[in-house]
Protein 1
Amino acid sequence: MLEYRVEIALWAISGIIPFFMLNIWTNNNLNESINISDIMLSRYFLCAFFVRQFSVVWVVFSFEEDSLMGKVSPYLIQPLNPFFRYFAQHLAEQITRFPFALIIAVFFFIFNPESIWIPNLGIFLLSIVSTFLSFLIQFLIQSIVACLCFWTEKASSIERLLFIPTLFLSGLLAPVVSFPAYVKSWIYLTPFPYLIDFPANLLSGNETNISGGLSMQILWIFLLFPFFKKIWSEGTKKYTAMGS
Amino acid sequence: MVQNIIDVGNLSKSFDISSKEPGLKGTIKHFFRRKTKRLKVIKDISFKIKEGEIVGFLGANGAGKTTILKMLCGLIYPSEGSILVSGYLPFRRKENFLKNITLIMGQKQQLIWDLPPIESFYLNASIYDLDKCEAKKRIKKLSEMLEIDEELFIPVRKLSLGQRMKSELLAALIHEPNILFLDEPTLGLDINAQRNLRKFLQKYNEETNATICLTSHYMKDITSLCKRVICVQEGAISYDGKLDLLLKKLSPVKEILIVCRSEEDAIKLENSGFSVKNKIKNEITIQIENDSITSSLKTILNNFDIEDLFINEPPIDEIIGKVLIKKDYEI
């Protein structure tokens, strides 16, 4: 059991990129150029860490491995879309990593006591909804890419192409507000800022358009879901059940 | 009248296969200009299977047996032709169809590796909409039939292959399917485990009248379970009928070792018109056609002084092997 406990702890620790970014931003006084205080910035990156913990998705890698090893075959002849399995797996792992994420947050507050704040209940609940919607968007994007396994066998390579915009445009490395105005207007048309930037701003209490952000998240889910259904239905026709 | 539960007509399946020359040059060529060719692995096959039948699919490696099973259970799309299983088009994978079938592949597992099998059973029970009480009842019944008990609570990775295979079967049968597709279910199992598995399948078939389609390279699986076999050669059906008839066709004669009281009797027998395979002193081996075995033995016993005789059945593996090895073997 020890190795499982260590693995879970490592999952949680592996998501600490936002804390590194916080360090870079504050040490170089970069936040002054975008008019965000040190405290608000540290809250933003803590929230980005939490949002990331509960929205990170790796379905493309799981599906690719299962598909190449022939493990998808028994799932395909069950009356349940195999992606529900992966969905449940992600939810279970989010619950498992929650205590570890909480411990990391406690350590964060010990070293940054000035950042402690209590969000109001309404905002807190909306942030949970928004984080879940962010998870749904990422799950759908990766599921669509995962379905390319039916054609290419190496869908994870395509996912790596998506990793770059996700990293830079989602708000994981820098709040989207720090981008020039004309770039920002384009970024907000993509699904990326609604993955981390919007829910993290919402939870940290930064100024944000709540109804606009939630609407965009829902809109992206409505756009991606039929696309996933179509690619799944076409892909299963191409399935050759290799490796089994 | 027993109804056909599987109806296949002019079924074909083609795959696009790419080939690559060895070495760096081959890799670069393969990257820029990939050569692919369309390979027809199943060629216009037709057959019907009745409810409750156990049918064995025989064929060499790569003959297309598993591809046929995969099309029958809806895992892969057929390229041409028609398939109707239990009234459904398998590749549409309708919920009611999927609740009626199961596929067990000897080399592949669906149990969750790090958890005890019982967890996978309950997961499967919920996937198939079984309530907990019904699931418990079925797990109890099947575990008794399969003779597994404590193993249900041990993580899958710690189970032996035989115990794992039994658990796989239980997981695959928890929804009590009417049609079982078994692809080499006894692969890698020891003799006792193979026998127990065969006994279980026989019993399951008797109790539920389930239809079983089976592929196996172990002839014992085929001979003890299947009355009917379908031989597949290079994607086409070369024989579809009773196993007994196939064996008769492939091995029309029996060898009989006769021990005469004296060498003179053996010489007399050698010259009496029977087809002699070999003779050593007073022991002589003759070949007699299956149809005339009774009358020939009567003649020998009446006319010669015989000390002992043995009828040798040719090993079934050897007979079936003829079908599998010789690609152009005519049945």
Note: The mean pLDDT of chain A is 87.
Protein 2
Amino acid sequence: MSTTTENTAPAPTPAPVVVLAKTVITSWKAPVAFLVFTLAMFALAIFGARPGDTTFRLSSPADAIQLPEVVVPSAPTVWVVAILLAVVTIVSAAMVRAQKRVPLWLIVIFAVLFMFGFLTWAAAGSSLPMIGLLFGSLSLAVPLIYGSLAGVIGERVGVVNIAIESQLLAGAFTAAVVASVTGNLWLGVIAAMVAGVLVAMVLAVFAIRYLVDQVIVGVVLNVLVVGLTSFFYSQVLVPNAAVLNAPPRFERLPIPLLGDIPIIGPVLFKQTIIVYIMYVAVAAVYVGLFHTKWGLRLRAVGEHPQAADTVGIKVNKTRFWNVALAGAIAGLGGTFFTIGTGIAFNKEMTAGAGYIALAAVIFGQWDPIKATLAALLFGFASNLQNTLSVIGSPVPSEFMLMLPYVVTIFAVAGLVGKVRPPAASGKPYVKS
Amino acid sequence: MKLELRGITKTFGALVANDHIDLTVEPGEIHCLLGENGAGKSTLMNVLYGLYQADGGEILLDDAVQHFAGPGDAMAAGIGMVHQHFMLIPVFTVAENVMLGHEQTRAGGLLDLPAARAKVKEISERFGFDVDPDALVDELPVGVQQRVEIIKALSRDARVLVFDEPTAVLTPQETDELMQIMRQLRDAGTAIVFITHKLREVREVADRITVMRLGKVVGEAQPTATNAELASLMVGRAVELTVHKEEPTLGEEALVVENLTVVDHIGQLVVNDVSFSVRRGEILAIAGVQGNGQTELTEALVGLQPRVTGRISLDGRELTGASVRKILDAGVGFVPEDRNEDGLVGEFTIAENLMLDRSTGKPFVKAATLQLGYRADFAREKVAEFDVRTPSIETKVGRLSGGNQQKVVLARELSRDLTLFVAAQPTRGVDVGSIEFIHKRIVETRDSGVPVIVVSTELDEVAALADRIMVMYRGRIVGIVPGNTPRDVLGLMMAGEAPTSEGVAA
């Protein structure tokens, strides 16, 4: 740590205002992290050099506008990227030495460069379907985004929603069963939301009414829902799979014009209705939280419940209904696992997505937009692993499986900086 | 609007916080509610404000009985409250805080921030406040935050306004301004309840005074009553308001601080290039409004601050950057500002708390084993010596009153061989009886030849104890002046104005 003084002017005026002089606290974290990744890139260039060219395919055959393929010679490109990374590292070190913070855009440039270099190396001698990679990233991120919206609402109102995982799973299960039995997808969606709400209400009742530790209730709920759905799956669904567990699926709805934009179109606008609802939900939660009465009161309750109480806001009622709302959103996200993709329900099919969503909430600094971006990053990391194993990358798939989690740890620990969570998150409000 | 409380009773378990309290406040009157911490003043006001439900009695506004299920009802009836701990959301702007709970919305359910801003501006202008509606509350000084609280109450057309210990966080100048605002409000016909334990303020502003003690109204007084009369009503016996102390016998310089700078986690210079020294046998009082760096300065002295530059030496030994353990071993005694947070473990017994910082060896620990017999003897001795009122040494510290808790902290710190004693806010939240005792012990410590630093935001305490007074403002030293410096000079210094040249020569 080191500091400089920017403003040391004495304060002779007798104003009753305490304004302290400020310095910039700089940190060597970013340059050090950059150095590690740069060395890794050099190591790939020197010890892992792979012959051949790398092809990036920027459009799929079905697209309206076909972009040319980008072909780069693998080994020289990796060298160039490594050198560029070294330059960025040196720039960041120079900035810290000059007592400046490393700006976010430099971190983004570094990350993109590194990813390009890594992909070039990993896909040497073969071709990489960029559209498929990005499309799959978004798909994998859908339940994470719904889950993180539920998490953001929960924590912003003061209840830690560890039970996102069980809400997703309950949603996936009920959506599959109800849609299979009735043949109506929308009934499945509604059933999933109801299931999510019910799970959330159990959490809310125990956390708010009975003041049980929220993390413990959440974890117990997760285990409970895994047990319940697994039991019904093996005892009821498997014997009657044709009737109870053969869900129809939402078809893809390409949006005219928007869907024809190169790269963006096929990734964002040739999706199912569940994904389109998600876009609306992210925007709605963002606007709602920061620009409406609902959001103002919700955030007040999560920051300083007593202050909210003194202006006549019913703290526990606000918390209860918003946790229920979060459950509905997570339940809706759960539909993606079954009727969103047309896959039959399977045991524990959410596979920890709820926990990753919770990480996205923190990484996203309790902001719906940033949490969405974080969820997309996790989706990308997961899908990268899928794509690379398909094209036969030299990296062991077990190693790649770690990627989303490694990304989480680095992101949360190193590069995000300190952010304050909602002050009353996780703390029950008790009136005397 | 006329406010009347009739026979309000509120109990918490076995504790009767309010015992049949009667109180009438007329419109256009400032009614002071005077009492010690724990007398039940705040409980009474929380009942009035609907935060607590009374177990008995009724609240009348303009002779109509009211039933408040919550603060919302109280506010709708025209009661506003400026809380001791501000009820503001730190991450919201002023306008958002003011609108919270009675938001106006525009088309599409969006918040009507322009209307809220206009409201803040309108009320600010009416009372001559300078408040930016778009400033984040977190970034405002406390004095301004308090004005936001007042604006918040006025924006709901409060006709009865309760000020709960409003001056605890203000400079003397800000206090004077607040009194002016209260008079202005009174003249506009508002009924004002002013809760405090500071006698000077009461006599200055009150139209009527009601004194509470141990949950009961013990009497009414006129604003013309003397300090001694009010104090004895408040405490229930005659109280010594001044501390007897002899001229200090000064020894050599013991603590020398040079160019000390402390940076907080967001890069603010909370202590900014501070140099001073304390001699053996003298009390240096550090005065200043809360939040001007005193807390961080004392924490830096005992090694609790992470980003410290400069030099600290004690009796010639370098203590800069030393660990807390090393500093304690060097003989530094420390009474932290917030005893519940930093001074005591509430769930531990008195005996356990008395050995908290001495768990590394003899005489409390031998061969990694607690010496329970020795500890019990020690605790009994200290409880007697420091007059801690407790049923036993095995009582949990959290159960004791503030004054007795503070005596436990004091007993622990003063029972070691000290080379420096640092006491931050030693009498905050402590009853008047205990204050006498604590002040006496601090002076005795000085007389035994130990250099003493007392941090206080209360000018009375500073004036009572100090041999020299160091005033801090915005992390810097405004000046170091003699202990007998007049109040108004200190007040100006606390607002950052350097003293005139003859005062500096201390």
Note: The two ends of chain A are 45 Å apart (CA to CA).
